[in-house]
């Protein structure tokens, strides 16, 4: 007969053992799995070590291929520029007329002042020449297809991973060319610049005159088309209190400034065309005057030669009279 107290203690010990077995069973299973996993990894590493590059080539074949178009311009041609920097450069490139002559301004706007002038010029020429080639190829392709376009946004090409719209870049460059030709490159002369055209009223909520139009054009030349905040912050342009007012309902805001700038640049283009026509007309008139003077000189020289000849030779009527008199004298003497 087992005493009650001892029997309870034995039962309690058995129950604790059962609980411990139940608790330890999942851990034992995990350990067994880990051991088997480590063993298989070791076998794999040993097999890779002895098999060499065969397994690597198999894994490479299993990898999915990269999708997308292949690069048309290899990265070697644009060494030193990331795709983000190329995007910034092209965005700033479109803000200036004659951008290849304003690479310093393009670099400032694109935050690429740490790049050398050689690298900037190389990238600028790559953009410009790529656009010209894309437009040329596109025009020849249109001729072959009969010129049916439909809805086409224009020819594009890629520089590294950046897609460039050739038509858009060249159109910006051409539209801003009159501004580049009209504004003096010398900083001191630029300060005294005044637009040479008669302009219509701006209808802004502040006083706006010809001087403000001139300063707006100077600001676009220096900071780029659309850089209204930079133009506003320049104290030399005297537009700080006039453009981009704090009240959004007051003009001129960015939209009105863009419209005014487009209008002023069109006036500059007309003025340049008029001056070029006058220059060509003046050159034509001067050529005509030169030809006329040459003809007059030739005619005068011919007349002078004729007069000299006539003076040196005796007149035919006098000769005949003298001959008649001599004949008469001879006849009388004979008689």
Automatic annotation (TrEMBL):
Q: Has keyword Nucleus?
A: yes
Give GO BP annotations, semicolon-separated. Answer: nucleosome organization
User: What is the top-level taxon of the source organism?
Assistant: Eukaryota
The molecular function terms of the Gene Ontology recorded here are:
ATP hydrolysis activity; ATP-dependent chromatin remodeler activity; chromatin binding; DNA binding; histone binding
Keyword entries, A-Z: DNA-binding, Nucleus
Q: Which InterPro entries match?
A: CDH1_2_SANT_HL1 (IPR040793), CHD1-2/Hrp3_HTH (IPR056302)
Domain named ATP-dependent helicase CHD1-2/hrp3 HTH: residues: 188-270
Biased-composition ranges for Acidic residues?
Answer: 320-329
Q: Name one Pfam family in it.
A: CDH1_2_SANT_HL1
List where Basic residues composition bias occurs: 62-72, 286-302
Q: Which cellular component appears as one GO term in the record? A: chromatin
What is the protein's name according to its record? Chromodomain helicase DNA binding protein 1-Z
Q: Where is the CDH1/2 SANT-Helical linker domain?
A: 79-165
| Record region (Disordered) | 35-76, 278-335
